[in-house]
Each structure stands twice: as C-alpha cells, then as structure tokens.
# Entry
Amino acid sequence: MADKETPVLVTGVSRGIGSAIAEKLLADGWRVIGTYNRNQPESDFAGHSRFEPVQADFSDPVQVEQKLKPLIQSQMPEVLVNNAGISENCDVEDSDEAWLELWDRTQQINLRAAALLAKWHIPIWKDRKKGRLINIASRAAYRGDTADFAAYAASKAGMVAFGKSLLRNYGKYGIEVYAIAPGFIKTDMAKDAAEIHGEEYITSDIPMGYLPEPDQVGETAAFLAEGKAPQLSGSTIHLNGGSYMI
# Structure
C-alpha cells in the first residue's frame, strides 16, 4: 500500500492537468512536490502545508539535473507523475533549422527530462521494493497527430515505450508503470488547437460529445498512485471519450 508520508513528484503543476493531479493528491493526503517553469501554480493548493513547489525549466538539461536529481535522492518520492510537456506547431515545410529546433525542444521537455527523472527514481524504488511511475502520455502516442504536431506525438509515443521497457526489467522489484493517454482536455493546449483548427475539429470525433475537465485525469492519476491495482501495471488508460478506441 501507499506510504503517503513519502512524497509524490508531479511535474508541470502550474495549470491544467498537472494542477488537477496535484490538487487531488493533496486532497487524498499525499505530500506533493510540484515543478513549474515560469508561472507558479494558480490553484489554492499552492499554499498547502504538504505542497513543495520547485521551479525548473525542463528545456534546460542543466537545470533539470541540478534542481531535481539531488531532490529525488534526498526526499525519495514513492510516486513520479511525468506530466510536464509542450505541444507547439511546426510545419514540415518550415526550414530544417526551425523544424529541428522545435523537435529537439519538444523531445527535451516531454521525453528526455521525463526519462531522466524516472531513471533517477529506479535505484530508490528497487531498494525499497516499491515505486510507481505514471506517465501522462496522449491519444497522439497511439493515433498520431497532424504533421505540424508530429514532434509532440513522437515524444508521447516514446514516453509510453520507455515506461513499458522499464516495467519489463524492474517489475519484479515491485515497481509499477502506467500511462494515461488523454485526448483533448479542457486546457490551454486544447484552446491553442482550437485556434488553429477550429472548435469543431476538437469535438467532432468524440462520441461523448464534450471535452472532459482536467480533474478526470487527476482522479485517474490519484487512483494509480495508491498502488491498489498492481496488475494494471504496463497498461495505458485511454481517457479520450471514445475518440480513439483500442
């Protein structure tokens, strides 16, 4: 069972899905370490006695290592929720330099930093004989995305494959790995997509007909954090309203 006196590390908690996850975990009694880039968390939980904010720019590998590696080694979180990510438009007809700049930035923030955080947790979890990795992936990891968001889709697919690879080797040590793959959620990222493609594009292929609130992802992540269903390990929870059914 979960030891809620050990913290959960949640990345990207300033708003949207990350904020909803942190809020739900705090409500459930966890200690939460939450990272943010420029904007501090907007939610009321920012002043919670069991919440510790950490500013780190995930596009900078030096900051990631200097700020988070020592923190992980000293506080030894039982759960890591890799949520921080970007989704930026870059047309394949742009220059190679511009396209690769965005590609590399996306992989650094969405995949490379997330993979390193998981790597730094593995020795702790292996020694403890328990630990849980929850990767916030995307429907795009399975369905793909439009070509101008291919970097985002590739980063999320890599996140899923990396997590499964860890489980294959370290599951025997009590380490659980999960992915949550949302479709469009009511976040700023969905608003950005609507501005590019139009409102109808966002909801036209969702059988349930509406965008879920971020707290649905928060509830799912909090359930997985409890460690009550270890045989779900290796699974992806597809939270997309039926817009892509696997």
Notes: DSSP finds eight helices and seven strands in the chain. Residues 176 and 230 are 7 Å apart (CA to CA). The longest helix spans residues 96-128. The longest strand covers residues 175-182.
